[in-house]
Amino acid sequence: MKTLRARLGRAFVGVALLAGATTAAAPVADAATPPLQAIVPVPVSAQAVTGADHALTANTKIYTQAGSAQAKAVGEYLAGIFRTSTGFPLPIADAPSGTPADGISLLLSGADTRVGDQGYQLNSTSASVILRATTAQGLFGGVQTLRQLLPGKIESPTVQQGPWTIPGANILDYPRFGYRGAMLDVARHFHPVATVKRYIDQLAQYKINNLHLHLADDQGWRIQIDSWPRLTTYGGSTQVGGGAGGYYTKAQYTEIVNYAASRFITVIPEIDMPGHTNAALASYAELNCNNTAPPLRTDTAVGYSSLCISKDITYTFVNDVIREVAALTPGPYFHLGGDEAQATSDADYRTFMNRVLPMVATAGKQVVGWHEIGKATLPATATPQFWGTTTSSTEVSNAVARGSKVILSPANKAYLDMKYNSSTPIGLSWAGYIEVQDAYNWNPGAYLSGVPESAVRGVESPLWTETVVTPANIDYLAFPRLPAHAELGWSPWSTHDWNTFRVRLGAQAPRWQAQGLDYYKSSQVPWETGSGNPGTCTLPAWDRASVYTGGATVSHNGHKWTAQWWTQGEEPGTTGQWGVWRDNGTC
């Protein structure tokens, strides 16, 4: 038995290390990237100022524009992040007249006119850091860049050791597109308020300014409607796979809207219609043409459901839903869905949309819809959202010709629920695999024929949740692709370069690790680990032909491996052998 056990031990060494070569395939950066070369999205202009590094200390104060409650709120937001990780008090005070001579200042005066409503300028010297913008939203965007000028551990939920050094810099920055969005589907799998808030914080740090919530679909209805209460109590009672489902009360939805607003993110509610409506049809028989409610569905099929186009009760229902949801939503948009209405004829589809579009206007909102809504006669204020896998769309180009602007979400580029590759444990693949480079390498301003950049409102990253159950699932599919899309929406096309982006993206890893964000470690990206020299292992490299007598730890493919005693319950020094290897992470 001893001989057999020794052979098993030797065999396990080879198997474990070979397995490590597969699981540890993501490359590791050779050295930490300088902060000014690591910002995502990349700024319009970022110039280093040598010898002007600024030290954040226990004496640092944060000054905000005197008399501006919004600027003060941005200051409190910044202080809340920095206080947690530094332990410094960082008091907030009104900025003095003139140019502050110390601390961090958030000012609504003196900014370069090119920053517009969302941009900012940041000037850091050894004496002070000054952020200027024309709006509080611009200051908030500048704060996201300021966070990235400090080490990733600034994001830690516990106090860390400094030093906390902000490099000397002059940054001028403003967005390419005014609209930069992300969609979260809470219908296929319900995600509670805390999960949505967590996602909002993740979006904010990459200057995403719109959150599109997909609130109703065949598998569940997620928003309380007082005039049709069974939509949630019955229609919201399940989800894909047959779980318990759930829904937001009006108070909870308002909590999400207000939290998003505090991060300068606009919530766009979507009630998909006339298709994707089985949860509603199951809740109220009268919405069906045959007056018979179908059973609830927990599968992932699409295209089989439709509201009854010919019934007046349908339009009473739709008007009530739009009216109640719009009243809770201060933003300018209401999303009608309108996709995959395969159970509705084109003629009925146009009839339905022609009756419903004015309801949205009456509720004080502008229509957004998946690009199929272009089959109807849209007002110029309507926004079709392209989700196809081609580079042309008659519906979209026709809408653009009538004056509409477009949101781009091509499924084979922007859908966060697509798998990275065939080995990805969650996600779908009907639109193809989307690795990080695929997500980054397309130009929204020249993507659709007949749609010039001037007709593009912006970019949105949809995350459908057929396979997404937990916050960790969201992390894994959204990161690192969401920051890639954020850069497409924010940064000038002239800065677009995969080779520099992948380095900047890899430099985000210590930040995400500090935040507990469970990202996908793509082998296309050189990931930093947060150590002083993250790519160097001082341990000996594993060699299949070598015998190791000077220690139990070796390096392999950027990871360190430690041998453990193979005893099956026996004590070292009796029977057994060194031979069970454990991955101890990166060197």
UniProtKB/TrEMBL annotation:
UniProt-annotated catalytic positions: E340
A cellular-component GO term for this protein: membrane
GO process terms (BP): carbohydrate metabolic process; glycosaminoglycan metabolic process
Domain Chitin-binding type-3 intervals: 539-584
GO MF, one example: beta-N-acetylhexosaminidase activity
Gene3D superfamilies: Carbohydrate-binding module superfamily 5/12, Chitobiase/beta-hexosaminidase domain 2-like, Glycosidases
EC number: 3.2.1.52
CDD domains the UniProt entry points to: ChiC_BD, GH20_SpHex_like
Signal peptide (residue range): 1-31
The keyword Protein biosynthesis is annotated on this UniProt entry: no
Catalytic EC class: hydrolase
Protein's UniProt keywords contain Hydrolase: yes
SUPFAM superfamilies: (Trans)glycosidases (SSF51445), beta-N-acetylhexosaminidase-like domain (SSF55545), Carbohydrate binding domain (SSF51055)
Keywords carried by this UniProt record: Glycosidase, Hydrolase, Signal
Highest taxon above the source species: Bacteria
Family per record: Belongs to the glycosyl hydrolase 20 family.
Protein name: beta-N-acetylhexosaminidase
Organism: Amycolatopsis japonica
Organismal lineage: Bacteria, Bacillati, Actinomycetota, Actinomycetes, Pseudonocardiales
